[in-house]
Amino acid sequence: MNETYSLKEKWRQFLAVLLPILISQLALFSMTFADTIMSGHASPTDLAGVAIGASLWTPVQAGLTGILMAVMPMVAQMVGAGKKDQVPYTVMQALYLSVGIAVGVIIVGGLVLDPILNWMQLEPVVRTIARGFLHAIAIGIIPMFLYTVLRCFIDALGQTRVTMFITLLSLPINVLLNYALIFGNFGLPRLGGIGAGLASGITYWCILLITLFVVNRVHPFVEFGLFTKFHRISMKAWNELLKLGLPIGFSIFCEVSIFAAVTLFMSEYSTITIAAHQAAMNFASFLYMVPLSISMSLTIVVGFEVGAKRFRDAKQYSYLGIGIALGIALLFGISLLMFSKQVAGFYTTDIEVLELAQHFLVYSILFLISDAVAAPIQGVLRGYKDVTIPFIVALISYWVIGLPLGYILAKFTSLAAFGYWIGLITGLAAGAIFLFGRLLSLQKRMIRSHS
């Protein structure tokens, strides 16, 4: 990554990092998108089963991979400070840690899954599909976590096009496996929603194998020699990774799990309501890939500038990213108002699900605007390695403000299921306001101390 000073050059540099990350995130999410859409066309019960399974797995997956995202600001700051020799050791320790985390989640998940599903009191068919979906996707947990570390290493070097190509190569594999396993094509059994989980699990192995080939054969990654020297497991290094990674992971978990919690609360409503909620939530999550990609890009460019002690440049990148995110969110919101029926039609042909999903989609517009502020700021703060306060903000805004308010509105007003969405929107907006205040304070302090 080159040194840049003019705003025009920063714009170009930021877009060069952002666009491949955005394409990668959209392609990665397209796997979940395809799982949901194709399961929905299998049957409403398959869609509901995948919705429940995904609502349990997604917050766990997001939170734990969030811990491993500590690699990105660490490597970015090392490169910015000219300490490239420290990178291989850090990446290898993160790979060891990722395997430990993956094995832990498989063991714990196997112990608690059935009690959780029994507590939810689902329709028997939906429960069977949700359980099978989670068992199937578990085969991809270890490769997914290993890939997360390697991707953070690649992206932190500014080589975001590489992860874009890797992801684009894997996407057709996932769609083809979905087609085969969900609907029983090519002589394979018709597994419905369970097939969606199996397809994703196999795809994660494909992504890992492609990535391992790249970091061992392609420049500039091969120059780091990640696997040329053996490094023992270091508890000290793990402690450094966890000190930065745990607040990141918990912050992501707080945000993602609140959406999962709402889906679980939705289980008291009809299968039609669950399916409509999941369709709208899935599309809103798809659009969230834009502010999330901007957030990841800001972690890289801000981390690089902070490592080089260029704090005014870091500040300019911050507001450039937030401005782009807000502009895109407004365009998405207007488009969703105009085409909510067409969007709902992607997920289902059932008239009742279609009409209810349209109502949920209108509420999701407010998600977009709050996320357009909060997500980029989180990325900026990670670039500064400022992660503890954002975690506290996430905990309070989502779990102290958002979910309790949603529960009250759903239970004690005529809003019913829509009350949960209003609670979520309120929590997201509160989080965005708190994080913006933290960003202003941090940047003033950094610039003042180095001026």
Automatic annotation (TrEMBL):
TM helices/strands, residue ranges: 50-73, 94-113, 133-150, 162-182, 194-215, 241-266, 286-307, 319-340, 360-381, 388-409, 415-440
Keywords, ordered alphabetically: Antiport, Cell membrane, Ion transport, Membrane, Transmembrane, Transmembrane helix, Transport
Subcellular location: Cell membrane
Biological process annotations from GO: monoatomic ion transport
Cell membrane in keyword set: yes
Record has Transport as a keyword: yes
Pfam families per UniProt: MatE
GO molecular function, one term: xenobiotic transmembrane transporter activity
Membrane topology: Multi-pass membrane protein
Cellular compartments per GO CC: plasma membrane
Superkingdom as given in the UniProt entry: Bacteria
Function: Multidrug efflux pump.
Cross-referenced NCBIfam families: matE (TIGR00797)
Sequence similarity: Belongs to the multi antimicrobial extrusion (MATE) (TC 2.A.66.1) family.
The protein's name: Probable multidrug resistance protein NorM
